[in-house]
């Protein structure tokens, strides 16, 4: 494994971390929309969030197993970070 490979995997991991953070932030917004009565807006946001996650993970899978694992690891690591930063939904 060369330095370029490690750099590439680190970039995919960082991208997964950013994508996971954005996903968790939109999930919080989605929860507020559900609680506030905006059913169709919340369903639309939910579909958009899941579509974005699926398309980015599918694209990452075409890049190879290493980038897919790095991106998925970043996605998984983003959840506890986002929960600590965003806290509870009021």
Write up what this structure looks like.
The protein starts with a helix and ends with a helix. It is elongated. The mean pLDDT is 89. It has one domain. Helix 1 (3-36) runs antiparallel to helix 2 and helix 1 packs across helix 3. It has 90 residues and is an all-alpha fold. Helix content is 90%, strand content 0%. The protein contains 3 helices and no strands. It has helices at 3-36, 39-63, 65-86.
Task: Provide a compact summary of the structure.
The protein is mainly alpha-helical and 90 residues long. The protein has 3 helices and no strands. It has one domain (14-86).
Distance between the termini: 47 Å
By DSSP (H or I, 4+ residues per run), the number of helices equals 3
Mean pLDDT: 89
Give unreliable regions as ranges: none
Major sheet description? none
- Helicity range: over 70%
Q: Give the overall shape.
A: elongated
What is the H-and-E element order? HHH
How many structural domains in the coordinates?
Answer: 1
Based on DSSP secondary structure assignment, what is the total number of beta strands? 0
Instruction: Look at the helices and sheets and give the structural class.
Output: mainly alpha
Round the Cα radius of gyration to an integer and report it: 15 Å
Strand content: under 5%
Sequence-ordered SSE layout with sheet pairings:
Elements: H1 3-36, H2 39-63, H3 65-86
Helix pairs in contact: 1-2, 1-3, 2-3
Distinctive features:
3 helices, about 90 residues, mainly alpha
